[in-house]
Amino acid sequence: MHLVIVGEPAWQLIDDGPGINAVIAEHSDLVEIYSIDESFYRLPIRSNGLGDIGAARKLREEIERQTGLPTRIGLGPTRALSKVANALAKATEKVWGGVVDLHDAELRARLFAEWPVKEVWGIGSALAARLHPLGVRTAADLVALPPAVARDVGTVVLERLVRELNGIECDGFKPEPEASKATAVTRQFGAPVTDLEELREAMVRRAVRAAEKIRHQGLAATRLIVFAHGSRYRPNPPSASRQTRLSPPSNDPRIIAGMAGKMMEAMYQPGGVYTKCGVLLEELVPQGAGQGDLFAVTDPRAPGLLAAMDGLNDRFGRGTIGIAAQGFGARAFDTKRSQKSPAWTTRIAEIPVAR
């Protein structure tokens, strides 16, 4: 049995989401964190083949007691059905008490007959328009669509959705998130930049941050891509990109930032006005698992040095320690954050004060 837990508002879940999943984990040994405000978890079905609504309501009460956040729970034999059940639970909370079970085929048929197809998980407005000539207006019409026709209209993705709405599981649980295949750090400048030294420093900062991101995931990059460009609203804006392979794969900011800085120098157009630059790390592999380089000289001190840097930055805040090439302190090219939402729930200094 699959269940979907949806809490709101989402901004609270960014802070409290881990707490919700900790509560869920007390009731199931298999939990998949699907997004900031959604999780799947598995429980055995009852002897009559239906979901345990009583247990779901108790879990809902326990989550609210421990975190103060409301949730809706959808029960179903597949992920798609549990998502639909969750949407129904939210729309009919006063009727069903925030929990809907779609294990019952007869109940599904009655509800689907009234449920617009465009509100089904995975059906956007464009796909709904393609389904309309086939007479598919409701979820019941979608369920009755032959899988082969669904594949022709919406590829294998729609075919899987149709099968899942019919109670056939096509997508299993993923308790562990898939490893990233690439990461990027690309930011607009707070003010236009024309000086090469500033451009190099901005690029190095982005490279250091990108390396930090993959290091925290235990990954290393095989390919480095950098770019820089000006505003398209200005005449003849500069625009260029470069890429290179990292051999062996690396997550060392000294290596990645050093190469990114040199690539920025090679791209620089004197007199150009730049408004954005970025770093992309691709072909990520588990750290230490990439193909080695016979001629590469590794630094035996690197693991300890990087661990110390990450430890200090994690404890005292990002940017506490870095490499000299990225500079220190605020710069004119830093991204503007004047419209940033206050971090009321995570920063003591930003808690509102009543006077």
Quick description:
By secondary structure, the chain is an alpha+beta fold. It has helices at residues 10-25, 53-67, 79-91, 93-96, 105-112, 125-131, 139-143, 147-165, 196-216, 253-267, 302-316; strands spanning 2-7, 31-35, 38-42, 71-76, 99-101, 182-193, 219-229, 239-250, 274-282, 285-286.
User: What structural class do the secondary elements suggest?
Assistant: alpha+beta
Radius of gyration: 26 Å
Low-pLDDT segments: 9-16
Biggest sheet record = 5 strands, mixed
The chain-level mean pLDDT equals: 85
Helix content: 25-40%
Tally of strands: 10
Strand order of the largest sheet: 2-3-1-4-5
Q: State the distance separating the first and last CA atoms.
A: 51 Å
Number of helices: 11
Shape category: elongated
In terms of DSSP E residues, the strand content is 15-25%
Spell out the helices and strands N to C. EHEEHEHHEHHHHEHEEHEEH
Your description of this structure?
By secondary structure, the protein is an alpha+beta fold. 39% of the residues lie in helices and 20% in strands. It contains 11 helices and 10 strands. The protein has helices at residues 10-25, 53-67, 79-91, 93-96, 105-112, 125-131, 139-143, 147-165, 196-216, 253-267, 302-316; strands at 2-7, 31-35, 38-42, 71-76, 99-101, 182-193, 219-229, 239-250, 274-282, 285-286. Strands 2-3-1-4-5 form a 5-stranded mixed beta sheet. Helix 9 (196-216) packs antiparallel against helix 10.
